[in-house]
Give the backbone structure.
Amino acid sequence: MLEALFDGLGLILQWKAFSLMLVGMGIGFVIGLLPGIGGATTLALMLPFVFKMTPVEAFAFLLGMHSVAATTGDITSILFGVPGEGLSAATVVDGHPMAKRGEAARALGAALMSSLVGAVIGAATLAVSIPIVRPLVLTFGSPELFMITLIGIACITSLSGLGARAQIKGFAMGFLGLLLATIGQERQSGTLRFDFGLIYLWEGLDLIPVLVGIFAIPEIIDLAKRGTAIAGDRPAAVKLGAGVWEGIKDTFRHFWLVVRCSAVGVLVGILPGAGGGVAQWMAYAHAVQSAKDAKDREGFGKGDVRGVLGPGSANNSKEGGDLIPTIAFGVPGSGAMAILLGAFMIMGLMPGPDMLTKHLAVTYSMVWTLVIANVITVVLCLATLGHLAKLTRIRGNLILPFMLLLVFVGSYTANRQIADLLVTLAFGALGYVMVRLDWPRAPLVLGFVLGKLAETYLFISMARYGFSWLTQPLVLVLIALTVLVVAYPYIQERRHGVPRKVHAD
Amino acid sequence: MPTRARAAFSLFVAALAAYAVVSAWSWPSKAGLFPLVMGTALLALALVQFVLDLRSKAEAAQGAAAMELAPSAEVAPELARRRTVATFAWMAAFVVLVFLVGFSLAVPLFMFSYLMLQSSAGAWRSLALTAAAWGFFYGLFERLLRLPFGAGMIQTWLGL
């Protein structure tokens, strides 16, 4: 096995494979900055180019591109409040307030370093777990997967802020998100739901226009209202690039949080269907839960670096997790992995036992690609972070049209439909009103991301087992875990003796 | 924000939930169960929030959602309102422009107009920034990814 590990490294360091990985990284870097064309779409677009490549070259190219897109998505999220990827929306919540405070470089440093740690943990998990992960994946049927989505939904307690009123609003928005996810044709019966006679809505609402609208437009409006640069009118004496090392140190100051959030990413990645959209929010919720007490928790949403570290690490570690079921069983963990599966077929490789025996060196070359691509990206980005952070000093009026282009071009490229622009605008208006009236946006997004999955897994569980699935041992454990996730902030407050009426009205 | 606005939004959410519940009743159980349950829960929470909004003063409601973007308060309300409306108007104008002339033309037209009229960036600077933005999007989508943008309504009418 060790020999195969080094063989894999040797394969990826061959000049052609390495060069192709660099080309893929370059494409992934630009794609990651733009909302809309996610890693999955880019993989699909680049698939025709791999026909003449060897398997190692093809996976170096594709995985180099895919893993870097997940890393650079955080850059626009932090600098402009525009999620560069569907997977990096959670970074906006604390990353952008840090940029507005003049700490863009620190936030970027923290996001990139935690991404690197996450990627390494994900890749290491992939390397060691392939032979042993089979029982875990096979244990998770629809009832267990439904319970995992419920745990994700339960994270709303941590995403809603403190106090009874905030919890009511948070859960209301979570349910609204779940309801929005039901728009379109129901998969089992074919019934059209909330389509208002519009063909556009038959497929349901796409995540990107919703996400970009609800997060980016309120930030853009706020920037336009202030009439200043993103970092405000801070004196020139404040060096924006000075925080890079602080951000890197933050990663190691909160190292165990980064490791735990990476583990969340790996676990969610392994489970089919859940994907990075879920992992980032669960990791963010975990970061919030890790606050010692109510006072420690108050900084979240206002620029707490832990809110950047959590999703940053989970986003990248889930790539390794995603690859595990894809390589070992041919069961893709996400849309991007389903496309990668296409690359396996093009290369004449069959995911499954062969990848763990005959083609083990190719499998390990993928592990190395994840690590090397992320190391190179992070080193290059760290070297230029000072300049990137300077973007937050440019006059708001000059940067605004670029932000608007990012928002609308990104939304459009998701499906290439004009109606997506209207959805972006509508959710932008909704997001703005929510911000003005103190309604939290994160639970709505979480509900929306999880809605389809929850309904599908619930339907399959009921059709297959009736109500008896509720008594399955693993389901019972997961129910207990769900209750714990909901109750944890309250237990924590009680344990630290903070009177609830301070926060609840 | 005044209590009235808070209560109105809660009522709006409750109305959405009520619509969802009523619609879900008429669907087959497979399709209706999930939205029915979610809609009912949302309706209950929104109504509770509506009552709370009516009963409590606006100041007391502040800070209920701690983990959110804090809107800037340092700008005079009238100026803030004007800038908000102007930004929404620019966004709407861009969407209309895309519909009429397609992305390829809308991007440079929007960029140049915004930079000239809203940013007062000056003609040369506006031209340079517009060229940079257009070059980036054209290079990425049309050349690298080979994802050409669709034509607008006007080009379609003219058969171009």
In short: Chain B touches chain A through 77 residues (CB under 8 Å).
